[in-house]
């Protein structure tokens, strides 16, 4: 209802509201007052009230309490004098520090610049002052252009000593310091310049004309827009509406290209003006002082290079080509904006604010024209020159076969070029290729290949029965030609050289059809061609084929690394410990016997004596695991080091264990152990269970013993914990190292209990214990037991550590930049992810066993969304090398 009753006021509120301001323009005061009243009526319905209105001009006689008479008003960041209807700039130079985003000291005046300016200026300080000059309409473009040029020079400035780019907080050189101080004083001159707002004069008749100027120099390019009104006195007036400028790129480009960039800027600003302005323009003119640019706009874009063509397309899409005119540089108002100007040259009656003088004349008197030149820079042309002799054995190759990676594309291209030579015109491209055309192209290349056999082919291939057919192609297989005809194949084989690129490209084409084996590809090749030594080339192609590598090639290997020192040196039990989890295991509740829950086994094993401690953890949280860990250290003491898998690296474990450990707070666990002098380390790479192999092998034995002891029974937590303790004792009774066998001199076998209990079994010891109260004898007995264990450890167990059980052969180290296929146990091999080696980590012996990979994350759709690369650690044994860096 309100929109139909007050349509103009409703449109004003919709299109001209900016947060809590309403900015609108009317032709007369009475129209403005009417819209103010209508707007107030619409806002009353929603319970809103207008605080105050400001109207341009002197309107003291208007009786309206909400109409405020003010000397200065802020309009969207700009300062506006309503009575004179003009914009002014307020300069605020202040280098003091800020407290709660407010400067601690007052702004500097013109006299204070030289006295109170800091002794050194930085990039950050200068940019802060320049950014405070807000000019959305570009009214002060000739002056701000000087600021932009000095800023570009400042940003690219480098230190004289080391050549490094100057930091944002580094002091600038003394020479530039003086330039900026002088510029800051000039900024205060800008406060004296008054910019009239572009409004329709009261005596204007008809619709105005929009005149767009564009120009460029070596330093910048710019555009400016003027509105020209026709008055009742048959005279004309013009006023600056808006301007825009850009600094020229650091990389030097030609003046015609900069002029074209200025034309694009002019077309874009024209689109914004027509969309946002309320003027209905009778005509729009684009003026440039470059005949080249004006002529380029009249041409089709496909005849130019990419730089020019893309810009011509945009200009032609936004404007009409007949709207572009040429004028001299002296009559181009945009030339004023491409060169730095002093604020005093931008007064109310200056060329910048009113435009060139000829704008006050009729259009017929303007010094403009529409010339068009034919020879233009950046113009592309196509020249076809063919010199082909279609004579027997005299073909000249007009095509570089090395430019093709596809046999079919090469044959099609050759057939089209032969058609062009036949028709002697581009009309040949309109002809659809036939099988005869493709056959002719293939015969053309066969003759090129067989030029290598010219002169001695009859003697050289005498054993193959060579001959020449009616097309001048050398064939072999004369002895079996009768048999070949009888089984519906060709009567002879075409002879090819294995070293020619055509032959290799054809073999590559056959291999790509099915990526078969060497014999299969060779059989397909021999259906038509006979190529001596083809088997070697087929093998080489198959070895380099990425798809074959993804499907068939084995994973990388590397010689087994050296054992860490902590496994080779005698130490107290569990001094260096490895940890792992297994499960889940189902238990029943002690009270509610039908209730079931899941717990997880935890295994601790000693690096040196291979002793085992087993326990349970009943929760998913960090505190539950720490409770289990505290039980372990209460019995065995804190280790010096603990090694384990963690979080997503537990890919060899069950999914539930991965989820459980993914919720652990690893920093809390590490801190808990670090306070007691324990260092916690983790596997370098994910999905590499062999890096914690001393636990993985024992878990297999634990599970087997649990099946034997428990079977399918469901125990309570305490019952299962008791079973695990007994299983741990059984494991600690297992022999380690060499077995006595039939050698009686080796004595009993060595087991972890020999160090933990001083005997292999947990039964009551049967040896002489002695009842003497002498402490020294008791100490001697204990030392003797420990010493005996380590002697036997060195004799029976240590030699077994010297043998490499697998990965005996030294392989090529992965290098940075290699393209690899990452094994994923959950996916089919053909769907494994491609990655690039980002960092190769060599071990102490110089062998690379762990690498950092870089790959693109998977997106939910086919469109790439610009996500950052991900880095992951992987063992080389989980990778397939597809493309070494030296082959790229």
TrEMBL record:
Residues 568-760 form the Integrase catalytic domain. It comes from the Eukaryota. GO terms for biological process: DNA integration. Transmembrane segments: none annotated. InterPro entries: DUF5641, Integrase_cat-core, Integrase_H2C2, Retrotrans_Pao, RNaseH-like_sf, RNaseH_sf. GO terms for molecular function: nucleic acid binding. Pfam families: DUF5641, Integrase_H2C2, Peptidase_A17. This is Integrase catalytic domain-containing protein. It comes from Petrolisthes cinctipes (Flat porcelain crab).
């Amino acid at each position: 209802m309100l929109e139909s009753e007050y349509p103009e006021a409703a449109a004003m509120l919709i299109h001209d509201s900016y947060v809590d301001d309403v900015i609108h323009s009317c032709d007369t005061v009475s129209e403005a007052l009417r819209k103010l009243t209508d707007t107030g009526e619409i806002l009353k319905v929603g319970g809103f009230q207008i605080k105050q209105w400001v109207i341009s001009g002197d309107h003291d006689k208007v009786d309206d309490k909400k109409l405020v008479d003010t000397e200065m008003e802020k309009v969207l960041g700009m300062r506006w004098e309503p009575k004179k209807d003009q914009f002014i700039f307020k300069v605020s130079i202040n280098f003091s520090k800020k407290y709660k985003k407010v400067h601690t000291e007052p702004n500097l005046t013109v006299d204070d610049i030289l006295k109170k300016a800091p002794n050194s200026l930085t990039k950050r300080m200068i940019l802060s002052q320049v950014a405070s000059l807000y000019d959305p309409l570009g009214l002060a473009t000739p002056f701000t252009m000087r600021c932009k040029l000095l800023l570009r020079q400042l940003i690219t400035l480098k230190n004289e000593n080391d050549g490094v780019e100057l930091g944002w907080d580094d002091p600038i050189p003394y020479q530039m310091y003086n330039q900026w101080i002088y510029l800051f004083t000039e900024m205060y001159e800008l406060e004296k310049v008054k910019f009239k707002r572009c409004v329709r004069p009261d005596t204007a008749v008809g619709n105005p004309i929009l005149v767009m100027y564009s120009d460029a120099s070596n330093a910048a390019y710019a555009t400016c827009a003027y509105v020209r009104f026709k008055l009742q006195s048959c005279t004309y007036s013009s006023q600056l509406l808006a301007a825009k400028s850009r600094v020229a790129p650091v990389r030097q480009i030609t003046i015609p290209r900069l002029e074209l960039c200025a034309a694009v800027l002019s077309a874009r600003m024209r689109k914004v003006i027509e969309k946002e302005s309320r003027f209905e323009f009778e005509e729009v003119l684009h003026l440039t002082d470059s005949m080249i640019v004006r002529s380029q706009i009249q041409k089709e874009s496909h005849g130019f290079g990419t730089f020019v063509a893309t810009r011509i397309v945009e200009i032609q899409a936004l404007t009409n080509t007949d709207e572009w005119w040429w004028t001299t540089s002296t009559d181009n108002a945009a030339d004023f904006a491409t060169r730095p100007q002093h604020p005093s040259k931008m007064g109310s009656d200056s060329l910048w604010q009113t435009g060139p003088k000829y704008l006050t004349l009729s259009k017929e008197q303007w010094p403009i024209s529409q010339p068009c030149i034919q020879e233009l820079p950046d113009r592309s042309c196509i020249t076809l020159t063919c010199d082909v002799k279609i004579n027997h054995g005299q073909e000249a190759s007009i095509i570089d076969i090395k430019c093709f990676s596809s046999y079919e594309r090469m044959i099609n291209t050759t057939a089209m070029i032969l058609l062009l030579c036949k028709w002697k015109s581009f009309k040949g491209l309109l002809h659809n290729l036939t099988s005869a055309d493709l056959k002719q192209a293939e015969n053309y290349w066969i003759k090129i290949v067989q030029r290598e056999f010219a002169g001695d082919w009859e003697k050289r291939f005498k054993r193959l029965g060579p001959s020449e057919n009616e097309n001048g192609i050398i064939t072999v297989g004369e002895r079996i030609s009768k048999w070949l005809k009888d089984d519906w194949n060709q009567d002879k084989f075409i002879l090819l050289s294995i070293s020619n690129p055509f032959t290799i490209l054809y073999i590559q084409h056959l291999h790509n059809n099915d990526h078969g084996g060497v014999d299969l590809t060779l059989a397909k090749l021999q259906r038509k061609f006979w190529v001596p030594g083809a088997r070697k080339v087929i093998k080489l192609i198959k070895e380099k084929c990425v798809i074959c590598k993804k499907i068939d090639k084995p994973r990388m290997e590397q010689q087994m690394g050296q054992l860490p020192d902590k496994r080779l040196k005698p130490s107290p039990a569990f001094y260096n410990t490895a940890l792992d989890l297994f499960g889940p295991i189902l238990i029943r509740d002690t009270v509610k016997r039908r209730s079931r829950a899941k717990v997880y086994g935890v295994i601790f094993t000693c690096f040196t004596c291979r002793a085992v401690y087993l326990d349970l953890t009943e929760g998913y949280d960090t505190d539950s695991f720490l409770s289990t860990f505290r039980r372990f250290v209460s019995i065995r003491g804190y280790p010096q080091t603990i090694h384990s898998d963690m979080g997503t690296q537990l890919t060899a474990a069950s999914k539930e264990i991965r989820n459980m450990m993914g919720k652990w707070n690893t920093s809390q666990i590490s801190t808990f152990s670090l306070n007691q002098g324990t260092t916690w380390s983790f596997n370098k790479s994910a999905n590499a269970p062999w890096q914690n192999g001393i636990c993985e092998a024992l878990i297999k034995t634990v599970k087997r013993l649990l099946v034997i002891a428990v079977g399918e029974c469901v125990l309570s937590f305490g019952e299962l914990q008791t079973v695990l303790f007994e299983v741990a004792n059984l494991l600690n009774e297992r022999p380690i190292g060499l077995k006595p066998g039939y050698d009686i001199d080796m004595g009993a076998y060595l087991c972890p209990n020999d160090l933990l209990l001083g005997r292999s079994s947990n039964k009551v010891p049967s040896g002489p214990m002695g009842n003497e109260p002498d402490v020294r004898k008791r100490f001697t007995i204990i030392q003797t037991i420990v010493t005996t264990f380590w002697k036997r450890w060195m004799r029976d167990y240590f030699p077994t550590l010297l043998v490499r059980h697998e990965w005996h052969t030294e392989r090529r180290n992965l290098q940075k930049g290699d393209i690899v296929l990452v094994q994923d146990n959950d996916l089919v091999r053909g769907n494994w992810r491609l990655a690039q080696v980002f960092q190769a980590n060599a071990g102490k012996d110089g062998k690379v066993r762990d690498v950092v990979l870089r790959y693109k994350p998977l997106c939910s759709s086919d469109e790439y969304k610009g996500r950052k690369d991900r880095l992951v650690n992987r063992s080389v044994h989980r990778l397939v090398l597809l493309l070494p860096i030296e082959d790229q």
